[in-house]
Amino acid sequence: MSTILITGGTGLVGSKLTELLLANKHEVRILSRKPSANNEYKWDVSNKYIDENALTGVDYIIHLAGAGIADKRWTDERKQIIIDSRVETANLLFDKVKKLEIQLKGFISASGSNYYGAKTVDKIFKEEDSAGNDFLGKVCLHWENAANKFKELNVSVTILRTGIVLSSKGGALEKMKTPIISPLGSGNQYMPWIHIEDLCYLYIKAVEQDFSGVFNAVSPESHTSKSFSKILAKSVKRPYLPVAVPGFLLKLIFGELAVILLKGSRLSSNKVLKYGFRYQFESLEKALHKI
């Protein structure tokens, strides 16, 4: 049994991960701006405060905190919030772990599948490929650099570059279930995805096994916006319209953040598989059937 501290523990992934960690007999603590449960502890990043009781005896920190990438239009202010909510939170954790001399076994951080940049190309990206030069690539690079600082304390670091998380409890999938389902833009952009249970078991693997380094947390089965939409429409029994939603319209509605809807490349999951991980939901059809 390990003691695990989670940031973003009440979010979509954090809630499911907490449930599964508890089922595996681990102790889970959650950092919250407004703690209410017995296992929740206050933190205030703007004032560089963390309740030190949250860190006492902790074995692993799982860092999921971060403002939603697609929640609001990308103004300059919003972009800074997106970066700071990931980077400054990790920096605060690093400073407190160092100051209190907490003997962490591992720091496990989320990152994004857009680490390689929001672009549609033939290349299948592997973990050793460079970060993209666009905003999302830079967000992920700063995010991962903050996580990797823990190596200075001789702490094992695991980073999961996560695709679209499929869950019955909300998230991106809920927004895709429109009355009529259509591809977006060209329809040729790839949509790296992963079922929430597979993602959570990757985090658990990082706690329970030798699973450190950087990994693409995506399913082995790749889909474009066209193929994803067809399978989704069939799964939820809604009409599929092959006429794509025009890219200019999405840009008009969402501004710059429309790039996350209109661009996307394939990511390799070979490294995860080489570490012995077995996906429960390799196919999109199977994943959607379970949701």
Structure, described:
Strand 9, helix 4 (172-176) and strand 10 form a beta-alpha-beta unit. The protein has an eight-stranded mixed sheet with strand order 4-3-2-1-5-6-8-11, with helices on both faces. Strands 7-12 form a two-stranded parallel ribbon. The chain has helices spanning 12-23, 76-100, 135-148, 172-176, 196-208, 225-236, 247-254, 259-262, 270-274, 284-290; strands spanning 3-7, 27-32, 40-44, 49-50, 60-63, 106-112, 124-125, 156-162, 164-166, 193-195, 213-217, 266-267. The protein has ten helices and twelve strands. It is α/β, with parallel strands linked by helices and 291 residues long.
| Helix and strand composition category | alpha/beta
Instruction: Give the CA-CA distance, first to last residue.
Output: 29 Å
SSE sequence, one letter per element: EHEEEEHEEHEEHEHEHHHEHH
What is the beta-strand fraction?
Answer: 15-25%
Secondary structure layout:
Layout: E1 3-7, H1 12-23, E2 27-32, E3 40-44, E4 49-50, E5 60-63, H2 76-100, E6 106-112, E7 124-125, H3 135-148, E8 156-162, E9 164-166, H4 172-176, E10 193-195, H5 196-208, E11 213-217, H6 225-236, H7 247-254, H8 259-262, E12 266-267, H9 270-274, H10 284-290
Parallel strand pairs: 1-2, 1-5, 2-3, 5-6, 6-8, 7-12, 8-11, 9-10
Antiparallel strand pairs: 3-4
Summarize the structure.
With 291 residues, the chain is α/β, with parallel strands linked by helices.
